[in-house]
Write a structure and sequence with these properties.
This protein is α/β, with parallel strands linked by helices. The chain is 22% helix and 37% strand. GO terms for molecular function: dioxygenase activity.
C-alpha cells in the first residue's frame, strides 16, 4: 500500500500561510527558505510544502481539509477564526459538520468532523 506523504501548495504569502496553519491547525514548521518556501509537518508524518508564487489561481472547488475529532472542535476553530477577523460562515451539516475559510496565501481550507 502506498501512503501520500506530501503536497505542495503555491501561495502568494508563505509567512502568512505558515503562521495560519501553525495557529489554527497545529502544523509545525520543519524548515524555511527565506520568504519563498516552508515545509509544514503534521503529527502523522505528512508534509505540506508552501512555495511562493506571483499569483495563485486554484479551481473554485480546490481545498485542503483538516478533520477534527468532534463538532465542538469544529465550532471552536470557527469561533477563533471569526474572533480574529476571518469571514467564516457557521458550520453546517453537509458531508459532515463542516465549514470553509479562505486562508492567507490564496487557498481554501475545510474544517470538518
Amino acid at each position: 500500500m502506498m501512503k501520500l506523504n506530501h503536497l505542495n501548495l503555491t501561495v502568494t504569502d508563505v509567512r502568512a500561510a505558515k503562521e495560519f496553519l501553525e495557529k489554527y491547525f497545529g502544523l509545525t514548521c520543519g524548515g524555511v527558505r527565506g520568504n519563498s518556501f516552508a515545509a509544514m509537518l503534521d503529527d502523522d508524518g505528512f508534509v505540506l510544502t508552501l512555495m511562493k508564487g506571483a499569483q495563485v489561481s486554484y479551481p473554485q472547488t480546490f481545498h485542503i481539509g483538516f478533520i477534527q475529532e468532534n463538532e465542538e472542535k469544529v465550532n471552536e476553530i470557527n469561533q477563533r477564526l471569526k474572533a480574529d477577523g476571518f469571514e467564516v460562515e457557521p458550520p453546517q451539516r453537509s458531508h459532515g459538520w463542516t465549514f470553509y475559510v479562505d486562508a492567507p496565501g490564496g487557498f481554501t481550507v475545510e474544517v470538518l468532523c
